[in-house]
Amino acid sequence: MSTLFAFLHHLAAFALVSALAVEFVLVKDAPTASTARKILLADLIFGISAGAILVIGLLRVFYFEKGAAYYFTNIPFLAKLGLFFAIGILSIYPTKTFLSWRPDLKAGRTPILDPARMKTVRKTIHWEIAATALLVLCAALMARGVGSL
């Protein structure tokens, strides 16, 4: 079971990173209706993946790996958890922006966006990507036993 949950955890993580990359590539200029739908789908995949990572990760911590006592005394794990939540908080702004497009898309219109808002969304996604890279570094350190108290 431990191997299955490790696989599912990594699969969800790769899906999250892929969705974030798709968002980053597609959020350049004012999107067309087709691009806006793709961004909404990528953001949905991002959210589902984040939820799966959290649930599966907690199951691994408490039931399938070294146990909560190990992980909650490991500095890279705590940093990884903090970065995960920071990414989640950062993702609120782009998600709210993307969801605001739904009425226009349902009506068959292309969403009209303020270029400054799109620039902020893109910068936010940039920060999410940077935090994700740091999270992966923390995961590697944690897996090597670095930082245990």
Describe this structure in words.
The protein has one domain (2-143). The protein contains 7 helices and no strands. 80% of the residues lie in helices and 0% in strands. The longest helix is centred in the N-terminal third of the chain and has 32 residues, at 33-64. Helix 1 (2-26) packs antiparallel against helix 2 (33-64), helix 1 packs antiparallel against helix 7 (115-143) and helix 4 runs antiparallel to helix 7 (115-143). With 149 residues, the chain is an all-alpha fold.
Order of helices and strands: HHHHHHH
In one word, what is the shape?
elongated
**Biggest beta sheet summary:** none
Overall mean pLDDT stands at 94
Number of strands: 0
What topology emerges from the helices and strands here?
Blueprint: H1 2-26, H2 33-64, H3 68-71, H4 75-90, H5 92-99, H6 102-106, H7 115-143
Helix pairs in contact: 1-2, 1-7, 4-7
Quickly list its features.
149 residues; mainly alpha; elongated
Briefly say what this structure is.
Helices cover 80% and strands 0% of the residues. By secondary structure, it is mostly helical. The model has no long low-confidence stretch (mean pLDDT 94).
